[in-house]
Every structure is written in C-alpha cells, then in structure tokens.
Design a protein that fits this description.
There is one protein chain. The chain is built from 16 helices and eleven strands. It has helices at 5-15, 18-21, 45-56, 59-62, 75-83, 98-101, 143-154, 169-177, 190-197, 207-210, 226-245, 247-258, 262-269, 277-285, 288-303, 318-326, and strands at residues 35-42, 65-72, 89-92, 106-114, 117-121, 135-138, 163-166, 183-187, 202-206, 215-220, 272-273. Helix 7 (143-154) links the parallel strand 6 (135-138) and strand 7. Helix 8 (169-177) packs parallel to helix 9 (190-197) and helix 14 packs across helix 16 (318-326). The longest helix is centred in the C-terminal third of the chain and has 20 residues, at 226-245. The two termini are 32 Å apart.
Length: 327
C-alpha cells in the first residue's frame, strides 16, 4: 500500500528538516553489550511518559537494551527517519496513522487514546464557518490536519473553503501568536503555549466533542528484528502498567524528561486516556483495537491520504504485543 504522491512528498520535505527542528539527547541505561536502539518521541505527555518511566524504573537495563532518545516535532518526520534507517522506534499520534497504514512502518504497541486536538481561531471569530476564506495553519499529515478535516466535514465545509497554510507545529505557534494566520488545526500542549500569547483565542472544535476513538501508538521500522520488537514492547508494557498505577508520578517524570513545569504536563495529561496492558491485550484480542485502527484508515481514505483503507492486521503487530505480554 502506498501513500499518495502528495503525502509522500510532504513527508519527504519535512523529513529533511528533522535534524534542525528536533533536539537530540540520549537517555536510557546502558546494558553492557545488550541491544542498542534509537527511539523518537514528541515532547508531550503521550510521547514522553513511558520513556521517562522506563528510565526511572531501569526497565531498559532489565531487558538488556540501551536506548537513546530523540525529540521530533511530529509523527511523519519520525516515520521518514524509520524508513531511512536513522531511527528504530518512534511515537505517533492519530493524525499520522495513515503512514503505518501505507506500509511505512509497523505499529508494535498502542499507547493511549488522546483528545488533545483542536481547531482554534483568533478573537473575533466565533465559529468554524468564520474561517471561510481565511488563513488556517496546519502541520500536514498530523492530528492537526485530522481534526481540521473532521471539523470542516461536520460543518458542511471542505479544505477548499479555507486558505490552508502548511507549516510545522512550532511555526503554527508563532504564526498564530503574531496574527499571521486566522486559525489553526493544532493540539495541546502547544495550544496552552499559544493561549499565553493570545488569551482570547477560541476553540471551535475538538476531537472529544466530535467523538470517536483516537489512538496513539509506538511504531517500529520495517527492518527491526522481531526479537528486538518483543523486548522493546515488553519494556513499554511494564512502563505502561507503572504509569497506570502512578499517574501523578508519571507526570513528574515526564516533566523532568521534557524539562518543563509539572503543571503544564498535568494539564496536557488531562487530555489523555491511559489503559493497562491487560486491557490493551483484551482489546487487541476482541478486535477493539482493530476497530479503532480501521476507523482511522477509513478516515484517511476519505481524505485521500490513503488510496484505500487496509485492514488493521496489515500494519498492527498484534501478535508481538500479545506475545510480549505473556512473557
């Protein structure tokens, strides 16, 4: 399954910026001759919390892995890095699910359900229809574009009704704050940053209000060995269960890794629904996870980001997840 030419060129163009827009750092415990992996993430609670827990609890070392971390501004850039061999694992939100669905990577673990995405508008605009003909910033191929598409459809509009301006997430923040755009499809915690500069902004649509299930996930490059996937997934599962049992502590650990105040991460985490590993295994076996992913694929087929909607089992390694949980 291949992504559209437009989608591929978009992913390729943003990928060329990956080294300049992402801050590099390393974390994880050395394993003394174990497996080395490179793990990408987005600097928010969804993307960072399990990695922070894995460090603090010594889970990488426990399973014979040495992990280095690297931050990225979105999922598509990580998928491209996986494809070029510059990354082994990454984290994506729901807006980038079309990329593993197109065969560019494999989902090895579902992380959370997220409801952090919004369409925001500048003061003076009170509804989505007020964006007709106006400039709307959006990081293409991300959950920002996803929520914008969903909101426009619900309002009986399409992308043709607005002046869509493609920009990366940090540029959306600065462009909205400086009044260069009238609206944006973007997510928390970036919206909280924008609110500090434009306190009167209006949220005219949200994924929670629109309804549905919006999964986040960890993905592996197609060349990563199954044995490595199983070990890494086991670390993520143990970190996941610790996070589920220690919510406040996981917020503090994520804040420490991200080097941001705890209250900001706590506000971000309020948009996140976590699940235990046992729950995720059950939802994998009973088809619930497949239903979530099928729903995302159907949506991206409608937007043209996928030529057709593939079955979830073609890009979600359910057997890896359930096998790791049984160890």
């Amino acid at each position: 399954m291949s992504m559209t030419r437009r989608g591929f060129m978009s992913a390729l163009s943003v990928a060329s910026l990956s080294l300049s827009v992402s801050s590099c750092g390393s974390s994880g415990s050395g394993s003394g001759g174990g497996t080395d992996i490179r793990f990408g993430y987005i600097a928010d609670y969804n993307g960072a919390s399990l990695l922070a827990v894995a460090d603090e609890q010594g889970l990488w070392k426990k399973h014979g892995i040495s992990a280095s971390y690297k931050t990225f501004v979105n999922g598509p850039i990580q998928i491209q890095a996986l494809g070029t061999g510059n990354l082994d694992y990454g984290y994506i939100g729901p807006g980038a699910m079309w990329l593993p669905a197109s065969g560019k990577s494999k989902i090895v673990a579902i992380n959370t359900l997220t409801y952090a995405d919004r369409v925001i508008v500048k003061p003076g605009i009170t509804s989505l229809t007020g964006l007709k003909g106006k400039k709307v910033g959006v990081p293409e191929g991300t959950s920002g574009e996803m929520v914008l598409n969903l909101a426009l459809r619900r309002a009986g509009m399409t992308m043709d009704d607005i002046d869509k301006v493609v920009m990366d997430a940090p540029t959306v923040v600065s462009a909205f704050a400086s009044g260069q755009i009238d609206g944006a499809g973007i997510w928390y915690p970036l919206i909280a940053t924008i609110k500090e500069k434009v306190p009167g902004l209006v949220e005219v649509a949200s994924t929670r209000e629109i309804g549905g299930s919006f999964p986040t996930a960890f993905v592996a490059g197609n060349e990563v060995q199954p044995a490595t996937n199983e070990k890494v997934v086991k670390v993520l599962q143990e970190a996941n269960d610790w996070r589920a049992a220690h919510h406040e502590e996981s917020v503090a650990l994520a804040a420490k890794l991200l080097k941001v105040p705890e209250d900001k991460v706590k506000a971000d985490a309020a948009n996140v629904e976590t699940m235990t590993t046992a729950d995720l295994v059950a939802k994998t076996k009973d088809g619930t996870v497949g239903t979530w992913l099928d729903g995302m694929s159907d949506f991206f087929a409608r937007t043209g980001q996928l030529e057709q909607a593939p079955a979830a089992d073609t890009f979600y390694s359910a057997d890896v997840y359930t096998k790791a949980a049984a160890r």
